[in-house]
Amino acid sequence: MIRKAVFPAAGFGTRFLPATKASPKEMLPLVDMPLIQHGVEEAKASGVRDMIIVTGRGKNAIEDHFDVSFELEALLEKKGDGKLLAQVRQVTDGADFFYVRQNLPLGLGHAVLRSMDLVGQEPFGVILSDDVIDAPVPVLKQMIAAYERYSAGAVLAIQKVPKDAVHRYGIIKGKKIGDGAYEVSDMVEKPRPEKAPSDLAIIGRYILPPSIFHALSSTKPGAGGEIQLTDAIRSLIGKERVIGFEFDGVRYDAGTKLGFQMANIAFALKDPEIGPGLQAFLRKERLA
Ligand code: UTP
For the whole model, what pTM was predicted? Predict the structure, then answer.
């Protein structure tokens, strides 16, 4: 059972400046729902109850978003707008939210390490909400099934990427052991194409054992001078069974401006309320 999920959200989001100067990147909306709420909804739909959000300076909007707004709910109730009221209640229903600060963004590994006391001694999920995945079955749920099927210690979401993109990801070396599953024997963060052990990149979903915290606390800064989660997971190989899992779904790198716009267009086109209008507009203006 995976009951807890960690959402690292303390980065500066520099690729979206100036939009992220005073507002968190994780609150950028995909149509009408902030990126981080997409991640939280995925976790809820995967059976997770406790959402642990790693925040930093300037991230108060995240805490406010996952808090009940009595005034807003009273107003919507008075107006008789049941649909919007249900959408607003959905934000806080079915989960408990916990926060921990990462005072300086020293890397993803460091952000996860900050959640140690809240996670305790149990396996947990990690969701990077800027990896948006449109999937028939929530990706974390797919991964939990693989975690159980292979009696894994850790499961990493992976996806094939073009050779000229491997330098942007953690890349695994692994042997295929089943449908979409790889036994990971090594991994390297942001390799040059000629040094990459495969084209299988780690995407922002993980199931990790509590032993990762000990590994993280002795992990030195790696690529980019940051404490890398990949380096700590690598040190678990041999002690824990690490599985790379090719999920079923379309993934958008919403941490980049291009990926974010692609995700917005794809989600908007699928939206029953605005999809037909957007499609008609794109055709009329010959934009697509
Ligand atoms: P990114 O590297 O994509 O986010 O980290 P960033 O640093 O905010 O963005 P850029 O590169 O400056 O544009 C992926 C996720 O990990 C979190 C980020 O908030 C993001 O959700 N993160 C990253 C942390 O919480 N702490 C860190 O030290 C680094």
Answer: 0.96
